[in-house]
Amino acid sequence: MARIAMWSGPRTVSTALMRSFGNRADTVVVDEPLYGYYLANSAVDHPGRAEIIASMPADWREVLAQLSGSPLPDGKSVYYQKHMTHHLLPEVDRSALSGLRHAFLIRDPRQLLASYARVRSAPVLADLGLAQQAEIFAAFGGPVIDSADILRNPRAALEALCDALGLAFDEAMLAWPAGPRASDGIWARYWYHSVWESTGFGPYRPPADDDLPPELASLAAQCEPFYAGLAAHRLRP
């Protein structure tokens, strides 16, 4: 059984990648299982905050025990876990992650922040999870895939990722039916409209020079060392 923890920040095609894995016949997916814990133990105000907290375990120990030890349904051998890395607050014992197979989804911080600024204002480094992502990689290693590489050539990128994870590539990962899924978090109605309309990965769009708001340039510079350190290990389809 493969228990895959895919660590990413926001605006990195993470939900589309969850769709891709969820379209495999051998795979069960879970959507941001630490989100309820994160909201319950921080002052962050996200859409649907109270509803999310009420619907999910607020104890990280309970969440990680389930992710590492619960059996899968018959016929399923892959447990794909979509994680937002900033959900790992400092109190989470990193050793509790050792039972998972880790992978990392990254995006150039200038592109990430340009996209983020269109949906939320005034982000800070903690909102993006890059420091935690680098920390988990240093502790456990695992394949690193860049979202731009997925969009440029989904087949080649997914073949490389599956190979690195010890999985056979499945053609079903390249396209999926439009619409919501039972596996989507209850926050999907706030964030997943474009994914609900999708039937596959969208085209890669090269960034324009003026995409990044000037006020986020300093934050992009803070992010760059974390991104560069992970990007040095990325798969090259």
The gist of it:
The chain has helices spanning 14-22, 35-40, 49-55, 60-69, 109-116, 130-140, 147-152, 154-165, 188-191, 193-197, 217-231, and strands at residues 2-8, 27-31, 78-84, 101-106, 144-146. The chain is α/β, with parallel strands linked by helices and 237 residues long. It has a five-stranded parallel sheet with strand order 2-3-1-4-5, with helices on both faces.
Structure, explained:
By secondary structure, this protein is α/β, with parallel strands linked by helices. The protein has a single domain (2-231), classed as Rossmann fold, CATH 3.40.50. Helix content is 39%, strand content 12%. A five-stranded parallel sheet has the order 2-3-1-4-5, sandwiched between helices. Helix 6 packs parallel to helix 11 (217-231).
Helix-strand string: EHEHHHEEHHEHHHHH
What is the strand tally?
A: 5
Q: What is the strand arrangement across the widest sheet?
A: 2-3-1-4-5
Shape: globular
Q: Number of DSSP helices? A: 11
What is the averaged pLDDT score?
A: 94
Main sheet attributes: strand count, strand direction, barrel closure? 5 strands, parallel
Distance between the termini: 25 Å
Q: Given this structure, which CATH class is correct?
A: Alpha Beta
Multimeric status of the protein: single chain
Could you name the ranges where pLDDT drops below 50 across 5 or more consecutive residues? none
Count of domain modules: 1
Write the CATH architecture name: 3-Layer(aba) Sandwich
CATH topology label: Rossmann fold
Helix content: 25-40%
Indicate the proportion of strand residues.
5-15%
Q: What is the rounded Rg?
A: 17 Å
Helical/strand content category: alpha/beta
